[in-house]
């Protein structure tokens, strides 16, 4: 039993199973197969709840069934008139479509009534009665269709065919009026007693929600017949009206959302275009200034495209700056539009010396100092604006000594958030103070300088 | 099958019943009432105790358990399901609808009093059955009692409540016999014919269009005008005298409905709840110069969501045990192969249906295993045969051919073992010759 303590893995139907041809292959395995297998049976997934029927053949012989007999009139009743064609038989249209076939067979009460009518003489042949009842049924059905009366089985289905209409339709029949009249009366009485068409084909199906098991052949519920799109058509009621209204509301909302979105994207595009125009102007100016330069052919000169690549970030930054910075709010100052205030390349400084200092050394417009780290999102301070805002840059104590370009010690810039930042300087060591700021990279010469 | 031999039995049905002298009454059966003593005393000739006691039991209550002489001449235990007065007799004469507790419900029948052994009456009337007659509303306790006592073989796949409901509505066969073409056939089960047919016990079917009538003359008149000699569909298979027709339930509604009414007489768990337009009917016929005579059929949903390739299957009783059922099953799988799908029959399967399917699956799978070289997966078997993987698993497992060895499943295909199983499964009756099947799957039909 201990061998059974492990669970056989459930069988994977995609896994290739070895076929063992001989029982000898198992001989080294002493465990009886049946016990393990019975366990397997219990574990097998989705094993049918069908009873495990054992020796089937014996059982089959023992299942008794009711009996049958041969009908002695068979060979008389069914004629030998069938010639099987050599090709496979094809279906013809249904009887209802063919038209001439009398679908109705007399029932017991029809026969009884007929024998009463006929008594000894032959007034009406049974075949004629079948035909008449069949025609009355079809005419009545058509009358009901014309009247647009649709009733499910269960409620009574009234007769719509009136006598005069019936007589008129049937006058071609070779029957006396009086006989026709009594057939109509008989049919009408029977039809009203049944409260449904006598011809089974014309009887409506029971309603879908009828659960009486004696009523049969109901149409499938709607939920079951969503096979095609046409069948999924909505119903025409308040519920679907509400649903459709909801759909309309949703679509309207989506529409206004999209319109707002379009507006926003157009604005963005405008801003972008202005930015590009601006860049072009800057490049133009730069080229003009370069013409003035002696050191045009500096090898470390960076192509403008790299600057251009930054433009988007700058643009966003610019956006922020424009809306949030107090500095920008002073843009109304007429002599110095804020637009210009943020443009490092607009030559507000006109001396050649100044230009050279700003642009030339490494071709990086922002850079005022070769030692200054590359801070891509910052903007340079503009002394005039600082003055206007009443900010005095820290004075340089080393100015008097004058040896080593003291004006660069306290360079300031406008940080990303719009703050004004000055680098700290250790006056004793004459070195920048590294406060462990991660983006402050220690000054080192750019590779292009080598 | 546990039938009780009685000493007086000689030939089938020739046992003299009322005088079956087991003289002194079996002890322990209490007398039920004294009101019939007077009646009994009218016949002073045999005024012995047992006679009196027997008369006192009459009429038998619904639910009584008693022994009844069956067609084999032997006495079998039965339960009285229903009783009714015999119209032409004494006002106190009844006949009884009994269920042979050893057999399937298909053998339930109306019997005369003389077939019952009144000495064997168990006096405790089965209240549950009586209750069912009058009302369907039962306490939970009563339901449970029925659940415990009432589950029979062949119904295991239905829950007890729906089984009870099913049995209540189909308790008594309405039609006892039918005439269909050459044969007069005893019916097996209730079938919900239209209410106009409530008053009759025998129906006459036209063997071609399957219209049913109450009188023989009506059938004879119908046969003169009936314009069909074969099922009203396309012939899709012909081999010798055997032909298969495909009938669309939507195009031939009345034929489909007639076929369902007829089939229900022989199928216990068939429902006629939904209309036939979503089904195709495959009607198998034997053909001669009188026409194509239906021997059986199977129905199939046009679009099955559960990959059923067969809904109902029936071989008519005169043609049973001749291999037609196996042919129908094989045919249903050939259609599935043409569709490129695997299929499985809709459940529940009847006792006879399960036997046929088990036999078919066994034969098909073992024939492959005998010949196959190398490893094979259940999925591959399924693709080759169009049999659903679950059915393959249960078949192989019930034959103990799938075993768990050294940490993996193997198929044990010892030729001797396979031959033994194949022999037990019986040979498949008639072979389906696929080259003679000319058929387009419904989906692709215009």
Automatic annotation (TrEMBL), chain A:
GO CC term (a single one): NuA4 histone acetyltransferase complex
Subcellular compartments: Nucleus
InterPro entries: Enhancer_polycomb, Enhancer_polycomb-like_N
Claim: Nucleus is one of the keywords in the record: yes
Keywords: Coiled coil, Nucleus, Transcription, Transcription regulation
One biological process term in Gene Ontology: regulation of transcription by RNA polymerase II
Coiled coil: 244-284
Residues spanning the signal sequence: none
Pfam families assigned to the protein according to its UniProt record, in alphabetical order: EPL1
Predominant place of localization: nucleus
Keyword Nucleus: yes
Domain of life: Eukaryota
Enhancer of polycomb-like N-terminal domain: residues covered: 38-137
Family membership noted in the UniProt record: Belongs to the enhancer of polycomb family.
PANTHER family listed in its UniProt record: ENHANCER OF POLYCOMB
Name of the molecule in the record: Enhancer of polycomb-like protein
Lineage of origin: Eukaryota, Viridiplantae, Streptophyta, Embryophyta, Tracheophyta
UniProtKB/TrEMBL annotation, chain B:
CDD domains the UniProt entry points to: CBD_MOF_like, NAT_SF
Compositional bias ranges of the Basic and acidic residues kind: 35-50
Disordered as annotated region, ranges: 1-52
Active-site residues from the entry: 346 (proton donor/acceptor)
MYST-type HAT domain segment(s): 170-441
Subcellular location: Nucleus
A single GO BP: regulation of transcription by RNA polymerase II
Keywords assigned: Acetylation, Activator, Acyltransferase, Chromatin regulator, Metal-binding, Nucleus, Transcription, Transcription regulation, Transferase, Zinc, Zinc-finger
TM regions (residue ranges): none
EC id: 2.3.1.48
Main location: nucleus
Any matching Pfam family: Tudor-knot
Reaction it catalyzes: L-lysyl-[protein] + acetyl-CoA = N(6)-acetyl-L-lysyl-[protein] + CoA + H(+)
Protein name: Histone acetyltransferase
Species: Acacia crassicarpa (northern wattle)
Taxonomic lineage of the native organism: Eukaryota, Viridiplantae, Streptophyta, Embryophyta, Tracheophyta
């Amino acid at each position: 039993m201990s061998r059974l303590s492990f669970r056989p893995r459930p069988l994977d139907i995609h896994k290739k199973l070895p076929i063992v041809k001989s029982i000898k292959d198992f001989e080294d395995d002493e465990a009886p197969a049946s016990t393990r297998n019975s366990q397997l049976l219990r574990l097998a997934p989705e094993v049918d709840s069908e009873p495990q029927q054992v020796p089937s053949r014996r059982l089959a012989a023992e299942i008794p069934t009711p009996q049958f007999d041969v009908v002695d009139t068979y060979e008389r009743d069914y004629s030998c008139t069938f010639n099987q064609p050599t090709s496979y038989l094809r279906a013809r249209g249904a009887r209802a479509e063919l038209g001439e076939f009398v679908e109705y067979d007399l029932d017991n009460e029809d026969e009884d009534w007929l024998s009463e009518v006929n008594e000894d003489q032959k007034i009406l042949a049974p075949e004629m009665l079948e035909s008449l009842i069949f025609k009355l049924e079809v005419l009545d059905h058509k009358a009901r269709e014309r009247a647009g009366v649709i009733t499910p089985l269960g409620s009574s289905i009234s007769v719509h065919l009136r006598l005069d209409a019936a007589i008129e339709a049937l006058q071609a029949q070779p029957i006396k009026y009086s006989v026709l009249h009594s057939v109509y009366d008989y049919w009408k009485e029977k039809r009203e007693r049944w409260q449904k068409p006598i011809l089974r084909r014309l009887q409506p199906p029971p309603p879908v929600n009828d659960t009486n098991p004696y009523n049969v052949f109901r149409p499938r519920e709607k939920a079951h017949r969503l096979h095609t799109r046409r069948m999924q058509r909505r119903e025409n009621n308040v519920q679907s009206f509400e649903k459709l209204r909801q759909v309309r509301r949703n679509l309207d909302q989506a529409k206004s959302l999209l319109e707002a979105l379009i507006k926003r994207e157009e604005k963005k595009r405008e801003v972008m275009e202005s930015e590009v125009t601006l860049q072009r102007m800057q490049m133009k100016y730069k080229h003009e200034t370069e013409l003035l330069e002696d050191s045009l052919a500096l090898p470390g000169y960076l192509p403008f495209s790299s600057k251009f690549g930054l433009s988007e970030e700058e643009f966003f930054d610019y956006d922020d700056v424009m809306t949030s910075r107090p500095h920008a709010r002073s843009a109304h100052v007429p002599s110095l539009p804020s637009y210009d205030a943020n443009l490092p390349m607009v030559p507000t400084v006109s001396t050649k010396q100044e230009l050279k200092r700003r642009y030339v050394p490494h071709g990086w417009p922002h850079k005022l100092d070769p030692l200054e780290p590359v801070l891509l999102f910052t903007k340079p301070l503009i002394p005039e604006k600082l003055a206007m805002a009443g900010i005095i840059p820290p004075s340089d104590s080393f100015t008097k000594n004058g040896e080593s370009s003291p004006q660069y010690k306290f360079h300031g810039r406008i940080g990303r958030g719009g703050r004004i930042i000055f680098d700290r300087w250790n006056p004793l060591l004459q070195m920048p103070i590294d406060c462990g700021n991660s983006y402050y990279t220690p000054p080192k010469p750019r590779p292009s300088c080598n | 099958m546990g039938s009780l031999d009685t000493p007086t039995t000689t030939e089938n049905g020739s046992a003299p019943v009322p005088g079956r002298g087991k003289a002194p009454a079996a002890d322990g059966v209490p007398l039920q009432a004294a009101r019939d003593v007077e009646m009994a005393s009218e016949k002073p000739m045999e005024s012995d105790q047992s006679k009196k006691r027997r008369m006192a039991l009459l009429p038998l209550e619904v639910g009584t358990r008693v022994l009844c002489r069956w067609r084999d001449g032997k006495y079998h235990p039965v339960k009285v399901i229903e009783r009714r007065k015999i119209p032409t007799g004494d006002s106190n004469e009844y006949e009884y609808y009994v269920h042979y507790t050893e057999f399937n419900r298909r053998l339930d029948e109306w019997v005369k009093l003389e077939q019952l052994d009144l000495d064997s009456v168990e006096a405790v009337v089965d209240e549950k059955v009586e209750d069912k007659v009058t009302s369907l509303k039962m306490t939970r306790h009563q339901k449970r009692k029925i659940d415990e006592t009432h589950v029979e073989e062949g119904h295991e796949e239905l829950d007890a409540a729906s089984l009870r409901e099913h049995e209540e509505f189909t308790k008594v066969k309405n039609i006892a016999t039918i005439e269909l073409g050459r044969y007069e056939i005893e019916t097996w089960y209730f079938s919900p014919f239209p209410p106009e047919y409530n008053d009759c016990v025998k129906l006459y079917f036209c063997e071609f269009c399957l219209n049913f009538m109450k009188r023989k003359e009506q059938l004879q008149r119908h046969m003169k005008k009936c314009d069909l000699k074969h099922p009203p569909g396309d012939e899709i298979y012909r081999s010798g005298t055997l032909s298969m027709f495909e009938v669309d339930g939507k195009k031939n509604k009345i034929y489909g409905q007639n076929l369902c009414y007829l089939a229900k007489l022989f199928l216990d768990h068939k429902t006629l709840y939904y209309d036939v337009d979503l089904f195709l009917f495959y009607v198998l016929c034997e053909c001669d110069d009188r026409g194509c005579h239906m021997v059986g059929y199977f129905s199939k949903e046009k679009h099955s969501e559960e990959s059923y390739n067969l809904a109902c299957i029936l071989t008519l009783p005169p043609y049973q045990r001749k291999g037609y059922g196996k042919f129908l099953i094989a045919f249903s799988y050939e259609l599935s192969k043409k569709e490129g799908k695997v299929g499985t029959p809709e459940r529940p399967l009847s006792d006879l249906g399960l036997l046929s399917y088990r036999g078919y699956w066994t034969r098909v799978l073992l024939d492959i295993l005998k010949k196959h070289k190398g490893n094979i997966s259940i999925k591959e078997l399924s693709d080759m045969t169009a049999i659903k993987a679950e059915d393959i698993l249960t078949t192989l497992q019930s034959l103990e051919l799938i075993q768990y060895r050294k940490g993996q499943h193997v198929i044990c295909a010892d030729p001797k073992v396979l031959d033994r199983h194949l022999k037990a499964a019986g040979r498949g009756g008639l072979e389906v010759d696929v080259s003679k099947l000319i058929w387009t799957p419904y989906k692709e039909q215009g």
